[in-house]
Design brief:
The protein has 2 domains: about 5-230, Spore Coat Polysaccharide Biosynthesis Protein SpsA, Chain A; about 235-300. Strands 3-2-1-4-6-5-7 form a 7-stranded mixed sheet, with helices on both faces. It has helices spanning about 20-30, 50-60, 75-85, 105-110, 130-150, 165, 180-185, 210-230, 235-260, 270-300; strands at about 5-15, 40-45, 65-70, 90-95, 120, 160-165, 190-195. α9 packs antiparallel against α10. The mean pLDDT is about 85. The chain is an alpha/beta fold and about 325 residues long.
Length: about 325
């Protein structure tokens, strides 16, 4: 295989033995028409069925197939991250291995990727149950768009295309693979959406459950913090610290006035305890913000990591 290819197609799979051969055939048929140099990177996320053996057979048959085998199930985010690390394409396309994404849509994403850094698929006519899948997804997409400021109709669609320089600089944890467009937005990337065909699942079982919602919400909080305050933690911790401390000072000041001016017994009042606690909490939050500032500076300076991203620039002197 060449060191630099036009396209890498990254596909995390877990127990998809019925879909592997069909998926490979459809991707090959779609990509061969483009004339692009491409590879198909399958990441076997600890499958317990025949998925691993089928992938090995495909790899032996076609040198454009790259297989990464995990020792156990690490999750889709870890599989995506491994695929990005091993991908050699200038454009990296991600998609699910359950045949619900249409490989023919890859061509549409690649065409759009000539103008944009990130191209996200939009399953406008989604073939999933409304109550259990589509409705929660609509609500989640609205919340994520408002919180991150990156407006997308379908964050949950795995079918996306990224320029190599976008994803090679992103480290993923938790369930953050769905937030890549939002995480990458701090780089100033150009993001577009393309309507894609969504198909009903014919083989295997869905790996997604309602329990994932809680993890997604927690990761959304993390993403919002990273986007807004990753290089200036004092501004969030300090803000809450000042508010808490101010409220505590006002409460204790009011109680002090009652004691000094009217000789009111305040020692047994719960309000006094609340005021003292708010002051202590405010001091602690401000100290946390200062410690966060020190850690951020140590992180960026020890790794010589810039806090900016350049699209084009002159050589350093």
């Amino acid at each position: 295989m060449k060191e630099n290819l036009d396209v890498s197609i990254v596909i995390p799979v877990y127990n998809e033995e019925e879909n592997i051969s069909l998926l490979y055939s459809e991707i090959k048929a779609a990509m061969d028409k483009t004339g692009a140099d491409y590879e198909i990177v399958f990441v076997d996320d600890g499958s317990t069925d025949r998925t691993g053996g089928l992938l090995s057979a495909l790899q032996e048959k076609d040198k454009r197939v790259v297989v990464i085998n995990f020792r156990r199930n690490f999750g889709q985010t870890a599989a995506m991250s491994a695929g990005f690390d091993y991908a050699k394409g200038n454009v990296i396309v991600t998609m699910d291995g359950d045949m619900q994404n249409d490989p023919n849509d890859i061509v549409k994403l690649l065409e759009k990727a000539k103008e944009y850094d990130v191209v996200s698929g939009w399953r406008k006519e989604r073939k999933d149950p409304f109550i259990s899948r589509r409705l929660p997804s609509m609500i989640a997409n609205w919340i994520i768009s408002k919180v991150t400021g990156v407006e997308l109709h379908d964050y949950g669609c795995t079918l996306k295309a990224y320029r190599k320089e976008v994803v090679k600089n992103i480290r993923l944890y938790g369930e953050m693979h769905r937030f890549i467009p939002a995480i990458a937005s701090w780089m100033g990337v150009r993001i577009a959406e393309v309507e894609t065909n969504h198909r009903s699942r014919k083989f295997g079982k869905s790996k997604y459950g309602i329990s994932r919602t809680i993890r997604v919400v927690l990761d959304l909080i993390t993403v919002k913090f990273l986007l807004s305050f990753s290089t200036r933690p004092i501004q969030i911790f300090g803000l809450f610290g000042v508010l808490s401390g101010t409220a505590g000072i006002l409460i204790t000041g009011y109680l002090s006035y009652l004691k000094l001016a009217h000789n009111v017994n305040i020692g047994s009042r719960p309000l006094l305890l609340l005021g003292v606690l708010l002051i202590l909490l405010g001091v602690q939050l401000i100290i946390m913000g200062l410690l966060g500032e020190m850690m951020v500076r140590i992180y960026y300076e020890t790794q010589d990591k810039p806090i900016y991203v350049i699209r084009k620039g002159a050589d350093k002197k």
